[in-house]
Each structure stands twice: as structure tokens, then as C-alpha cells.
Amino acid sequence: MIIDKNTLQKYDVAGPRYTSYPTAPQWSGDVTSDIYASALRSFGQNDKTLSLYIHVPFCEQLCYFCACNKVIRAKEEQVGDEFLDHLFKEIDNVAASIQHRKLIRQLHWGGGTPTYLSEGQIERLFSKLQSVFDIDLDEEIAIEIDPRTVTENKLKVLRRLGFNRISMGIQDFDAKVQDDINRVQPYKLVSQVHQWCRDLKFESINYDLIYGLPYQTKETFKKTVDLVIGLRPDRIALYSFAYVPWLSKPQNKFNLDAIAVHDEKLDIFIQSRENLLAHGYQAIAMDHFALTTDGMAKAFDTGTLHRNFMGYTLKPADEFIGLGPSAIGFLENTYFQNKKTLPEYYESTAQGRLPIERGKQLNQDDQIRQWVINGLMCRFQVDKKLFFDKFGYEFEDYFMEEGGHIRDCIEDGLISEDPKQIQVTDLGKIFIRNVCMVFDRYLKEKDGQKRFSRTV
Ligand SMILES: C[S@@+](CC[C@H](N)C(=O)[O-])C[C@H]1O[C@@H](n2cnc3c(N)ncnc32)[C@H](O)[C@@H]1O
Ligand code: SF4
Predict the structure, then answer these.
(1) Which residue segments constitute the domains of the chain, with CATH numbers given?
(2) How far is CA 449 from CA 17, 116, 394, 454, in A?
(3) In which residue ranges of the chain is pLDDT below 70?
(4) Ligand positioned closest to the Cα atom of 183
(5) What is the pLDDT of residue 106?
(6) What is the DSSP letter of 29?
(7) 144 lines ligand 2 (CB under 6 A)
(8) Residue 449: its pLDDT value, please?
(9) How far apart are CA 14 and CA 180, in angstroms?
(10) What is the pLDDT of residue 2?
(11) CA 145–ligand 2 middle distance (angstroms)
(12) What is the pTM of this model?
């Protein structure tokens, strides 16, 4: 694919990744623990199903690029025990508010690195969840692992408990890049962990890769992608490096001259994308690739792919609960986020409070725009008739003000439009965040430049 420089210049701006709409800068402390408790109570009285996320923040070593919410601690049983004490208080508190046993249709442990916990701690946490929720073991039970620290035995424990999906951070195989980002994990180590997962028959293995890291070039990253293709994970998340040094201080260590930007960075992405497409992978919505034989590829083709904070999913639950520091939930059309720092989270749980820090109650306009952005992110499309059936407005009337921006995107070849739908073009798929930005009411009101990473 050839992208002309003017298009690139115009759309290479700062913008959200839309894991939520409205995006996090719009959330506030107006959403309190009391509102959360009331949403949990309502949830307990209906028959909606649950998607549960657990955030375990610990990692043994800091990766300098990392923008996740994590806490670096040397491996110590006591750190995990203290964490579980507080997490169990939160679980009890949430369960007491719900008052009924709910069915978990999607369970995801993320972080940080959930496998920081010892085997005994992992078992204790799983049993604790089973003591208050029903876990449907036929659904997606996923965990993020760090290949540098996971052991074969830990993987055996996870499999025995019912985990069926593994996601691991790979980022890049190049020794110079690994050294600079402070994450040394040779190919041999990853292929060993991969083989353990295959032998244990995990249904799906996902790799995270990042393009745009320091010292990455087209040549070096091609070698990484070739090695990845050789290992054949079922799914690959190919993330654009989010360079946000104002949020993630260790990123200031990077030599700016060594970081590919603009067309250089985009070239790395396009080359990797073409390499993956040529080797049995299909591009799935934003950032993601899956083997054409994988359920996710089929779901994308049939328009049944869904997205939440845990990434893309085939079988969405109705409501989301997040447990652990910084975890996010979405209940009764309201986002809830837990206290982000460990001391604040511990303080709240110790006092028997639901540890909510902030959130956002969606008004009708938010819900409409959330639906449109979700359609673009999951299906690269907006169906105008479905829009009318769902909200009772003609698409063109509702988005009159956005008309100019929509026409701009059409002229630049990012989308096509007819009376039935908006369809994202191949070029638009690369700039999907920019297409979504057209429908983001809050970006019009505030300057988003300093808050987000660049879209390319
Ligand atoms: C919680 S980690 C994955 C599990 C485990 N901690 C590990 O690193 O192997 C989540 C993923 O977020 C991605 N990530 C973190 N910081 C990022 C950044 N600044 N830009 C793009 N992706 C990032 C990485 O690909 C990382 O694997
Ligand atoms: S990338 Fe993973 S292991 Fe590295 S610091 Fe971030 S969460 Fe921890």
C-alpha cells in the first residue's frame, strides 16, 4: 500500500485508542463508590451476564516503554499475599452488593503480570472467584503472562484451573532493541514457553508486538515478524508504540533520534502487516491479526466481533466488572475505575469501601457515539438502518455538524459512504483512530494533543 505524504501528515496526530468512549480524560470523581454499589445492586436483580477483569499490577522488572499500570517488585510471596488480602476484600464487597451469584462469560487476568503470583496464590484467587461467581469454563478464560518469568509448572496449574487463552508480551526479538527497552528475552526462551503452551493445549496463544520502539528499523523488525510467523501464534496484537513520556517517565530514557516516527514508523507497520497477511494471518479490526482459521477471523468476517477493555472478544457479556487497582468496569451505562495507586487501593479496601476513583455516566449522545465508534473499531463500518432502528434518528441528521469532517475523510479515501452505510477503506483501516475521532464530541471541545499518543 502506498500512502501519500500529505495524507500521512494530515492524520499523524495525537488521538485516543478508543478502548472506551467517552475516553478517560472525560471521566471524573463525580462517579462514586455509592453509585457503583447501586449499579451492582441493579445488576444483581437482572439476568445479565458478566465479563470479569482482574488487574494484578506487579512485574519483577521495569520495561522502559511500558505505559501500563504496574508496580515493580522483586519476587516475594508476601507481596502477593498482601495483595490478595485486599483483592479478596474487594471481591467480598462487590459480591455483597450484587447479592446473587452471577455467571462469568469472560474472565481475563491482566496487569502488570498476573503470573507474578505464585502457583498457590493463583489457585487461591481462582477458588475465591468460584466461591462467589459461577465461571463458565467453556468461555474465554484468559491470562497475560510474561515469558521471562512464567514456568512450565505455573502453566500447568493455569490449564488445570480452566484457563484456555494465553497472551504474552513479545514486543521485539532484536537484541539491541531488547537491551534499550530493558526487556531481554531471547527467541529460544519464547519458543520454549510457546511449546509448553501448545503441549498443554491452550486453545489460543496471543503475542503482543510493538512497532516504533527505539532502534527498530524496517530490516530488524522484519526479522522479528518472520520469527513470530515461524512460531505461529493464533493471534497477534501489533501495537503502535504509545510514546507518552509525560505519563510514563521511564520513556524519557529513550534516545529520540533512535525512534522511528511518521512515514518511517508507518513503513514498519505496513511491511509487517503485509508480511502477516502473506502468511496466513488476517487483519482484524484495529491492531490485531489472527490466523484465518481462528475464531476471531471468522467473527470479524461475520460482523460478530466485539471489543471491550480486555481487547477483542467473540462472546460479549452484558456488563463488565473490574477488580484490582486501576481496573475498569462498565455497568448500567457507566464506566467505573478503581483507585490507581496501590496505597490508595489498599486504603479503600481496608476500610471496607468499594475502591472507586472516577468514572463516567453516559448520556444519550455518549451512548450513540459509543455505538458508532464501536462499529468502526470492530467492523470498520456503520450501518445507517441499524442506527435508525436503535436510536430513532437518521444518521445524516444526527451527524449534521460532523458532515464536513465526514466529507474530508471521503475525499482523502479513508471512508466511503452510501445511503445504507459508512464503510472504512483499506487506507482508512490504517487511520481508524482518526476516523473515530470524527465522531468524538469531546475532541471538538478540548485540545486532545497532549493527552494521547500519536495515531500512527
Ligand atoms: C500487561 S502487558 C502484557 C503482559 C506482561 N506484563 C508482559 O509484558 O509480557 C500488556 C502489553 O501492553 C503493551 N504495551 C505496554 N506499553 C505500551 C506502549 N507504551 N505502547 C504500546 N504498547 C504497549 C505491550 O505490548 C505489553 O505486552
Ligand atoms: S510490559 Fe509487561 S512486564 Fe513490562 S513493565 Fe509493562 S506490564 Fe510489566
Answers:
(1) 1-18+363-456 (1.10.10.920), 19-321 (3.80.30.20)
(2) 13, 35, 31, 9
(3) 1-3, 5, 445-456
(4) 2
(5) 92
(6) T
(7) no
(8) 47
(9) 25
(10) 67
(11) 10
(12) 0.95
